[in-house]
Amino acid sequence: MSNTAIFWPLIVQTGLIYTIYIIMSRRRLAAIRSGKAEASDFRIPQIEPEPSSTVVRNLVNQFELPFLFYAVCLALYMVNGVNDATIVLAWAFVISRIAHSWVHITTNKIRHRRPLFVVGFVINAVLWLWLAWKLI
User: Fold this and answer.
1) Which CATH architecture has domain 3-135?
2) pTM of the model
3) What burial letters (b/e) apply to 120-130, b meaning 16+ CB within 10 Å?
4) What average pLDDT does the structure give for the chain?
5) Average pLDDT over every residue of 82-105
């Protein structure tokens, strides 16, 4: 498997971010159309109609743990640390983020969302440990 295969999970993760932006925009527009919000409500980030509030929070999540994921994948590529295991882990991380986002923007049940977050968290940590091992 080519070292560049590590970029496909990054591309899909980025696609997730764009998808969340689109969902957020649609929910905000729906809130305006239904009269639950006015366009001016979105000038202040603390004011968010309930239908779009979980999507906005999920979007923020996409720039937290995934930021570390992007960094470790790029670093692994730079030090020739990409192998079949890291590719599988990278895809598993992205799948966990997609599932986490799905739960977050639909039911938002913590008992389902938290384990999905923990899976991604652990996978990310393993990737960073692999990077450290490659540097030793």
Assistant:
1) Up-down Bundle (1.20)
2) 0.93
3) beebbebbbeb
4) 94
5) 98
